[in-house]
Design brief:
- There is one protein chain.
- The chain is α/β, with parallel strands linked by helices.
- 37% of the residues lie in helices and 26% in strands.
- It has a 7-stranded mixed beta sheet, sandwiched between helices.
- It is globular, with a radius of gyration of 24 Å.
- It starts with a helix and ends with a strand.
């Protein structure tokens, strides 16, 4: 065997052995799959506590929420297709969608999975019992999560 063949064989053996040693196994890739988070950017009034509680709810469900206090919240809403009838106390953006108000994380996950051609979701007003609006000793209100179509119309996405 000449020197070139010996070097080539040695290099291939070294690369193969290194790949064997450092190739990720199922256990180490499981961490990578579960550690990825979806970013949410939420605009709110600086002193809104229920908005912060909604952000906590989202974080508990695997989202990473950036909270941005603003004095021009209604501007953010109208510039992004949220009418006064569909408005709530905070406006969030995730995966190209608007999420208005106290929408449960489960419904945001569904939105991101189904990817409808829409502006996003809203829970108008601030119903008691929606994520971030829990009140101890008070029964939860019935409420709807609405899908906001591109033309501004709404349809029921989920009911609670």
């Amino acid at each position: 065997m000449n020197n070139t063949k010996i070097l080539l064989f040695g290099a291939l053996f070294t690369v193969g052995f290194a790949a064997f040693l450092f190739w990720p196994d199922a256990e180490s890739t499981a961490y990578l799959e579960t550690s990825s988070t979806t970013e949410v950017v939420m605009y709110k009034q600086a002193t809104c506590m229920c908005c912060a509680k909604w952000a906590d709810h989202m974080a508990e469900n695997g989202f990473e929420v950036e909270q941005i206090p603003t004095d021009t919240l209604m501007e953010v809403k109208t510039q992004n297709g949220i009418s006064r009838e569909n408005a709530s106390c905070h406006t969030a953006f995730v995966g190209g969608y608007v999420v208005e108000g106290h929408v449960p994380a489960k419904e945001v996950e569904r939105l991101l999975a189904e990817k409808p051609d829409a502006i996003g979701l809203t829970v108008p007003a601030m119903p008691i019992g929606s994520p971030g609006m829990e009140v101890e000793g008070r029964e939860a209100d019935n409420y709807d999560v609405l899908l906001i179509a591109r033309d501004g119309s709404t349809s029921v996405w989920a009911s609670y």
